[in-house]
Specification:
Helix content is 34%, strand content 19%. It is an alpha/beta fold. The strands form 2 sheets. The chain has an 8-stranded mixed sheet. A two-stranded antiparallel sheet has the order 8-9. The longest helix has 17 residues.
């Protein structure tokens, strides 16, 4: 699907950045003719994203004329999910986690975009008093170059992502979970819901699932843990299938009103690999 520029707003974006067509092409790493094509004939969404990044425009669809923008948003698996789609997804996930048999009473989510969607789920699903009562824990996910020290944050348990099984030296990641999370339910008998905005590779949730298993949480229809997300890449189910998701997609990257999703991956990982857990809380003497 080709998308054409909004001729009213696009020149203003260039003027605000004091850029020429050639400057924009150079910044987006595309041919100069591509910018002209965007104005006259249209470009693919991936090209428009590059132009938007070069212009430092968060919502790349604002560069596209309204007619094409609406057609794109209504296209199947467009890769962009606006507020209407997010609202419907949040209501769907909330009904499953809170109104059904599961009735989650502990929430684990992740900082950034995931927390935005988790907040929407809570806002559309729970009353004021219930939102104030339910314990919510926010984990961190960070890039990690194995040649550097493993990221450590006081008060969090650091869990390294799986190592690649082949000889490729991909950048890894770590998941940091608040130490207070397991203390809230030492016997693993409460119902924990892990809420994410999207699952792309499934690598992060593979780590989290293993961690929950160590805490004696059980997944499944009659289990004590459920994972849920707004958008799920269909190939991610090979690694860590979420229990619930609102929108299936074949894409590896998605966009929301606040920008593109943040994702982590280890393309070649072993599902059976044990996960080493290390606590990084300060010791009594103040050291870490």
């Amino acid at each position: 699907m080709r998308l054409r520029a909004d001729l009213d707003d696009f020149p203003q974006f260039l003027a605000d950045k004091n850029m020429t067509y050639k400057d924009l092409a150079r910044g987006a790493k595309v041919a100069p003719a591509t910018v002209t094509n965007f104005l006259k004939m249209g470009c693919r969404d991936i090209t428009v994203r590059k132009l938007a990044k070069a212009l430092d425009v968060t919502n790349w669809l604002t560069l596209v004329r309204i007619k094409d923008r609406n057609a794109y948003l209504h296209a199947t698996d467009s890769g962009y999910f606006g507020w209407a789609a997010l609202e419907a997804a949040a209501k769907k996930i909330g009904a499953i986690l809170f109104d059904g048999d599961f009735k989650a009473n502990i929430i684990l989510t992740f900082s950034g975009h995931s927390w935005i969607f988790a907040s929407l789920v809570l806002a559309y699903s729970l009353s004021r008093n219930r939102i104030l009562d339910i314990p919510i824990y926010v984990a961190l996910t960070m890039d990690w170059e194995p040649s550097d020290p493993m990221p450590r944050v006081a008060g969090f348990t650091t869990i390294p992502g799986p190592e690649p099984t082949d000889e490729t030296r991909e950048r890894r990641f770590v998941v940091l979970i608040p130490n207070s999370f397991p203390k809230a339910d030492p016997d693993g008998k409460r119902h924990v819901a892990v809420i994410d905005d999207c699952i792309t590779s499934g690598a992060v949730h593979l780590v989290v699932n293993n961690y929950l298993r160590k805490l004696k949480y059980r997944r499944g229809e009659k289990g004590t843990a459920r994972t849920a997300c707004c958008v799920c890449n269909t190939s991610a189910t090979l690694l860590a299938k979420p229990d619930h998701y609102a929108i299936p997609s074949r894409r590896e990257k998605f966009s929301y009103p606040w920008g593109e999703c943040v994702w982590f991956t280890n393309r070649s990982i072993s599902i059976r690999e044990p996960i080493a857990v290390r606590s990084d809380s300060p010791k009594k003497n103040g050291s870490t």
